[in-house]
Amino acid sequence: MDSREPGDSNQPKAVCPPLSLYIHIPWCVRKCPYCDFNSHATTGAIPESAYLDALVEDLEQDLAFATGRPIETIFIGGGTPSLMSGDFYDRLIVHLRTKLNIATDAEITLEANPGTLETGRFEAFRKAGINRLSIGVQSFNSGHLKALGRIHDSEAAHRAISAARQAGFDNFNIDLMHGLPGQTPEQALEDLRTALDYQPPHLSWYQLTLEPNTEFYSRPPDLPDDDHLWDIYRQGSEFLHRQGFRDYEVSAWSRDGRASRHNLNYWTFGDYLALGAGAHGKISLADGSIRRYWKTRQPEAYLNRIGSRTAGTDIIAPEDLPLEFLMNALRLTEGVSERLFCERTGLPLSSVGVKLKTARDEKLLVKDRLQATALGQRYLNSLLERFL
Length: 388
Description:
The longest helix has 17 residues. A 9-stranded mixed β-sheet has the order 9-10-8-7-6-5-4-1-11, sandwiched between helices. It is built from 15 helices and 14 strands. The chain has a domain of 248 residues: TIM Barrel. Helix 1 packs parallel to helix 2, helix 2 packs parallel to helix 3 and helix 6 runs parallel beside helix 8. The chain is of the alpha/beta class. Probably acts as a heme chaperone, transferring heme to an unknown acceptor. Binds one molecule of heme per monomer, possibly covalently. Binds 1 [4Fe-4S] cluster. The cluster is coordinated with 3 cysteines and an exchangeable S-adenosyl-L-methionine. One of its GO terms (cellular component) is cytoplasm.
């Protein structure tokens, strides 16, 4: 590790960050009208065996990035990963363990959606080696679920969480949205109260936004106005704090010590391999540069690709590194140390010294740490624009 102080104008040494693995499962039962992820509605049986073979081939191309580095966390996202069988994940994780150095305490998370889980599915996932779930409930109100285009109702949401608990999953996240069409502050609070009845260690609680290239963007629903949105957020935040939850990240809440390790690696500018159709990765290279790369997006093209499935790569220019780092780090409520900026970017803190001083003079950043103030959190996009 570099021994110079963060403010030293000499170039510091970049320190190799922790390494994670992201795996993308691109299929879902039906495309939700708000979803801008790489998800594709199924038109028949999912080609599990062919996709497993493609993932195995894909991994071979990226193994050099993991040489000598343990995998600290794995996140399987989608799409709807819970559409795949327990046998699929058993075979996949066995292969990963033969090819990669997966830490003995690795956090292995699977996204699971209610409505795609027949009896015994959670037990099979746990037996395969998955030790954390992220359950996409979105709301416990059946009317709101229908407005969101979800395939499950409130009863299915309750069944899914109960089944996960019965299968032995004590480390799980409940995914909830707020600011839904016609939602009142009391209804948003009721979703939170219902979720906490299951004693989850972690909640993702975020506002519905209208993203380009979605059905909701082209045909916007009637969403709560800004005053109602603020009331929902304020009342929900106060309730979660009273219940012992900490908002460690912009839209993530956890009990002490139960934050998502995988997400923390993203926000602290760690590295992550990418497998699967449309997956994105980030790798720190031996020459000190940092590469982002992404895989072939369309499932059929990914399955039929011969050779590398990497569709594109981009070396982050040194002048862009400060913004890239801060876009992640400032999502964290407690921010990060100034030293971490030097270790993860290889740049001296003096490279952004003037901009840091301006942000601190404007009361947007705290002193001696890369952490947004309450004002800076409220105007985070404006704060980040100072580092363009």
